[in-house]
Amino acid sequence: MTPIDRFDPFEQRITAAIDEIAAPRRPDYLDDLLRQTARTRQRPRWSFIGRWLPMDTTLAPVSGTARFPVRATLLLIAALLLAVAAAIAVVGAANRTAPPFGLAGNGQLAYAQGGDLWVADGPGVNPRVLVAAGDIRGGISFSPDGRLIAYPVTEPGGDRFWVVGADGSNPHPIHDDLISEGWAWAAWSPDSSTFAMAGTIGGRWALVLAAADGSGDRSVPMDGYRPWDVGFNPRDPDQMLLRLQETQGIRALDLYVADADGTGLRPLRLRTGPRAFGDTYTLSGSAWSPGADVIAYNGIDTDPETLITRFRVHLVNADGTGDRALPGPDDPNIQEAWPTWSPDGRWLIVQRWRWRDSGDKGDGWMAIMPGDGSEPARDIGPRLTEGDGTNVVKAWSPDGTKVLMELETGEVYLVDPFADTWERLPGTSLLPDWQRTAP
Amino acid sequence: MDRRVLVERAGRGDHDAFAMLASASATRLDAAARLIVRDPELARDAVQDALIRAWRDLPGLRDPDRFDAWLHRLLVNSCLDALRRRRRRPIEIEISPIDEPSTADTARHLADRDLVERALARLDPEHRALVVLHYYLGYPLPEAATTLGISLPAAKSRLHRAMQGLRRTLTADAPPVPAPTGGRTA
Predict the structure, then answer these.
(1) Cβ neighbours of residue A62 under 8 Å, at least 6 residues apart?
(2) Which residues of chain B lie closer than 8 angstroms to A367, CB-CB?
């Protein structure tokens, strides 16, 4: 295992303290243990299913080339492909490209399960493996036009994004250097031609734009800045929204609108408020509205009465004016953040939670509010309760009538945010992404 | 002898080869287990369980180069299983005897250790396992997430939460635990 370079002094302290706490010593029970294993019979090789199927059941790394199934499964895969091709021939002629923003039709669901990329024709309908990779752990996203799927494959040392056709055709990697520690955000351009990634790429902080067709990737120069998050103007593939941090001085953070080649940085000049939760979360969670006129993001404010620092959703005009905090819960101990726009921009879904350490139960849930923030959010959906954590991840359906919700416990739900009803989705513990189709 | 060769031979039933692998790994496994379960007896049980399973299931490991990662996954699972089976009771951390600090830096160093130890004790076992995988065993976060069988976003949120808890303990006016990463699929 290659040691991870720790540049953060705090991390260095932690690592040193843990090394000392661990105080390694040769276990005095080792000899007895080895006598016991010597008496234990190994399982025969033929009893491991991974020896028979092309799908790895172990931690085998994913190579850059496509896997070739063993002879015994070639016919099965060929039959699957024929079935997919037949389905495409029947249905494909009727498919039209989805618009990149606004309401759209609900197409397939794509999700990770057991390390593979699965698709279903609808919630729980005809689930099947699209890509058998063995090391896909989430982060799956359809292109805005619904034709492609981007997915990260975990390799030793980091992740690499691949793109595959929504019909399973032509899976290919789209960038060379692995994304290692620090990767947080990736986004499709609205014209579905480019996939942007921000994080530690190739061992350094970088913003990388990769061509979806695999023809190449390029690093956008970010001299003097560390890129944290990246998104696109939903109506303009040549305009990005970046969360950048200056690498000098007070290391200020801000949201920037920029041209897609990294030039033309225009800061929104937002107040960061107390950076109580660290740089990772200051001005995080930015999301451009479908109308491209407003940006929602995570603000960190101080309650004037209790002086409790908490997350609150902010809206700001795309030119940086009119920054305002949305009315949050009356209880200052309830955090509210991670705004997600409905496809038509009329609604925002947010995450709410209370931390266990605050003396409360430590739970998480969703809430819905008007997209203009004219009313406080209303709680919806299932709820993580004490001991289950607080993390809730969510996504709208393309037609704006449902919300997919993943709880930290590994349950995925399909929620009707308006009727406040929900059903559990079987087959996956990670948030699916929903394909946009022509309305 | 080349480690890969040892793994291959052990997978074919060579117990001496396995004994060499186990001996080379046991010290670190034991330390990692003690960090996760915080009880030397439970750690011993977890290490024993992991190594017995490793010997038994080694023929199923297709890539010998992944032996260490595979073994660490077995260990983490054994630790978490042991904790789940066990009733909650006060747990005493075994603290090795230390010398009196002779310099201010040493005093701060020892204070850090004590504070980190207490902060680790307050973490959930799953969070603690992630901290151990990442900061003690040195796994990059994506691989640590794979080892724990969780998504990378979940791993990021847990690690950030754990680190902020540690930060709060080590600094007088450190902030509360931060939010997990919600709202986006990345």
Answers:
(1) A133, A134, A135, A153, A154, A155, A160
(2) none
pTM: 0.58
- Are A118 and A112 a contacting pair, CB within 8 Å? yes
- 3-state SS class at B130: helix
First to last CA, chain B: 42
Least confident window among A1-5, A12-16, A400-404, B66-70: A1-5
Give the span between the Cα atoms of B107 and B119, in whole angstroms: 18
Share of chain A above pLDDT 70, in %: 85
Which has the higher per-residue pLDDT, A52 or A211?
A211
Tokens standing for residue A197: 């990634």
On whether ipTM exceeds 0.85, the answer is no
Tell me whether residues A21 and B132 touch, CB distance under 8 A. Answer: no
How many angstroms separate the CA atoms of A386 and A94, rounded? 48
Contact of A431 with A406, CB cutoff 8 Å: yes
Q: Find chain B residues with C-beta within 8 A of A390's C-beta.
A: 179-180
Please report the DSSP string for A378-429 in residue order.
EEEEEEE-TTS-S-EEEEE-TTSS-EEEEETTS-EEEEETTTTEEEEETT-S
Predicted pLDDT of residue A401: 95
Structure tokens at B13: 């039933």
pLDDT range class, residue B181, cuts 50, 70, 90: very low
Nearest to A22 among B31, B176, B186 (CB): B31
